[in-house]
Amino acid sequence: MIFSTSCEKREDNTVRNNLLTFLATCTGGSLEACNAGCAGKYPDVTGDNYPAASACFTACSTNCNLSTTLLLLSNK
């Protein structure tokens, strides 16, 4: 058997990555601001605008999920 003694410790970057994602993709810095931006961009959420508006609001819900980021920070 061959044993390797040069193991590297894996660094957990989850919190840092989530904070960077929040800062980079949460337009306006909060869920409300992001949703307001989507509402301004797509005032008519019917017909052809529906898929784009839905994607915009979904991105806000995903990217502006501050509660998950705060939970990760509190567990460190």
Poorly predicted spans: none
In round numbers, the mean pLDDT is: 81
Give me the secondary-structure category.
mainly alpha
Terminal CA distance reads 37 Å
Total of helices: 4
Helix % is 55-70%
Q: Which percent band covers the strand fraction?
A: under 5%
Anisotropy-based shape: elongated
Tell me the radius of gyration. Answer: 19 Å
β-strand number: 0
Could you give the order of the helices and strands? HHHH
Biggest sheet descriptor: none
Give an overview in words.
- The chain is mainly alpha-helical.
- The protein has a domain at 31-76.
- Helices cover 62% and strands 0% of the residues.
- The chain has helices at residues 14-25, 31-41, 49-63, 66-74.
- Helix 1 (14-25) packs antiparallel against helix 4.
- The model has no long low-confidence stretch (mean pLDDT 81).
Short précis:
This protein is mostly helical. The protein has four helices and no strands. The chain has a domain at about 30-75.
Question: Which labels suit this protein?
Answer:
mainly alpha; 76 residues
Secondary structure layout plus pairing:
Layout: H1 14-25, H2 31-41, H3 49-63, H4 66-74
